[in-house]
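Dear colleague,

Following up on Tuesday's group meeting, I ran the structure prediction for the two-component complex that the binding team flagged. I've pasted the input sequences exactly as they went in, so you can double-check that nothing got truncated or mislabelled along the way. The structure tokens for the whole assembly follow below. Feel free to forward this to whoever is handling the docking comparison.

Inputs:
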Amino acid sequence: MEEEDMINFTFRNPTKIIFGKDTEYLVGKETKAYSSRILLHYGGGSIKRNGLYDRVRKSLDEAGIEVHELSGVLPNPRLTLVQEGIRICREKGINFILAVGGGSVIDSAKAIAVGVPYKGNVWDFYSGKAVPGEALPVGVVLTIPAAGSESSNSSVITNEDGWYKRGLTDDSIYPAFAIMNPEVTFTLPDYQTACGASDIMAHIMERYFTNTRDVELIDRLCEATLKTMILNVPRALKNPTDYAARAEIMWAGTVAHNNLLSTGRIGDWASHGIEHELSAIYDIAHGAGLSIVFPAWMKYVYKHDISRFAQYAHRVWNVDYNVFNPEETALKGIEALEAFYTSIGLPIRLSQANIDEEHLEEMADKCTGSGSYTVGNFVKLTRDDVLNIYKLAL
Amino acid sequence: MEEEDMINFTFRNPTKIIFGKDTEYLVGKETKAYSSRILLHYGGGSIKRNGLYDRVRKSLDEAGIEVHELSGVLPNPRLTLVQEGIRICREKGINFILAVGGGSVIDSAKAIAVGVPYKGNVWDFYSGKAVPGEALPVGVVLTIPAAGSESSNSSVITNEDGWYKRGLTDDSIYPAFAIMNPEVTFTLPDYQTACGASDIMAHIMERYFTNTRDVELIDRLCEATLKTMILNVPRALKNPTDYAARAEIMWAGTVAHNNLLSTGRIGDWASHGIEHELSAIYDIAHGAGLSIVFPAWMKYVYKHDISRFAQYAHRVWNVDYNVFNPEETALKGIEALEAFYTSIGLPIRLSQANIDEEHLEEMADKCTGSGSYTVGNFVKLTRDDVLNIYKLAL
């Protein structure tokens, strides 16, 4: 077996996607197949303002489902709310969680779902002390294309006791179904649309930059999904009610993170780790942090595989391939990514987010366990590498 | 709602893909999760000659599984063998079918799987008299990348009583798992590799040529998968033990037909119908029939949407886009497809398969119920249209 070969993989994504106009009216029927007594989990007022809450409740009521509610999910969803959800489910004999919202609401619902049948503290799964054996089924009505949690097997929760933000990846938490109506995203603020797009593109690029050779099909599927984003995000920003553009973005957001694009290869994921420390200290959206970190990461590592970066520039950004100077081609791809982020209103430098040098050393420490481990797979970055990337992003 | 919008869709593909080197040794463990008494279903000698049969049996034996065998599946799998399989399963109390082979073996296994729990004649499902409520689980060890049946919800069976060839599409027949080791395909004869490639490419092109507007993500995923095939099939023919090329083809063959590429759009499928009559009368491989029919179909219908054909030529075949003459661009794409088929040893004219005008009228009749219905969605073809396409292919 040669090292370059595509890596053996297992792929199974069981989430049923129900996509299109008015699909939220199907939530009662889909839910009823699992349960007649559910926890309806959501964030705050936006789904009440735009009418989605009423439509979902109507559909659930018509299906004769007993609904218990737990709202108040915040960005970076909290452990205490998860524990409250677990308590309610046990008390009321609830065996299904319906998440109506974006990634935070879905991640919180998944945490409740693994916590209910577990005798210990659900945080055990996030701290790596235990592995889930089972989970309640989770249904989703998606409102923000971004995190890809609607058909992923992962969940990220923040423990307020020490402000640890930790992730769980387990096949038991793939949602049972995800209802996706692009019309629901018409009312997203521009900045949130752009941040979601940045998150989606980052999910693809984290997978794209790999040392695995001979993974051509997935390279090309990644490029196809990125190009779709690059064309449709500006359309959606120009005309927020452009159904076609919203639909392309929403479906691309799922394809980006449902693990098809991970098959046969090892992704990088350093930029997510580096961004993570940024949004842990500063009040910056994940997508905006990624639009700052990703170009800096690229500038720092592109020499590791100029061919791959030149391919990215040429195929994704239509940069002319300069066969006499592939490095020039590669660099133009990074410039094109920066120009795109700027065009959709995202920052590409820490200074644009009013972040200065003050905490860079601290973040580099946290990101690498004070230098005790590296981050990323494409290039294994040390603490000093991470610091240099933060500095490049200033 | 505008007609052009992406169409609402439901997508769920539950098949677990286990992909890579030596994965056939996992078949015992995967099967054991479902049953300890199975029907092992396969074709003829090829899996015995190349050692796959022995490896599969060893893995099943080690897992302590009681194996009953039914071999002898032919291309265009027959109803009588299906009925024999149903009888064996009932008699022995078997509740799991393991298919080791290509599309014919898998389709036959699916037919047995829906037939066992059904009181009537399994043909009822294929003739449209009944709809399956349930099916036994089916596992697959794939040997030929072509039909995509390893993760599809369809099965085609031939009833020898009248030689009717009919298809069933039902979500109950998605295989439970599919084990895919590209090394197993090293020993495929060149012609079979090429015919499989033609089948895979046809599955993508049938979906690509649509009247649904604003389906950009899936357009691009189709183009990416086609380009992967175009690059890797010649590599595999040049060096049959090129693992990377074989792996790209095998994974592309699944992606082509697992219904992801159908989401949000209506495919055409006329060429499959037109080819079907060809291989029903003449002894010609499905893939070779498709390489004859598809270019003729394209020449006949391209004016219906020159833009789409020009996009296909430009993006899939790297034809320079002539903005002053998109029709020229479109036609060059069709020429490129013909040149590709020729380069991999496939016929592109009926004459190359020694087929003359004799049965053209008869096939056009059969294909359209003597003109009582049309075939295809991109352009709805009448009996005379189909006849003209056969003539174009002479």
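The interface with chain B takes residues 1-2, 4-23, 213-214, 216-217, 220-221, 223-225, 227-228, 231-232, 243-244, 247-248, 251-252, 255, 260, 263-264 of chain A (CB under 8 Å).

Cheers,
M.
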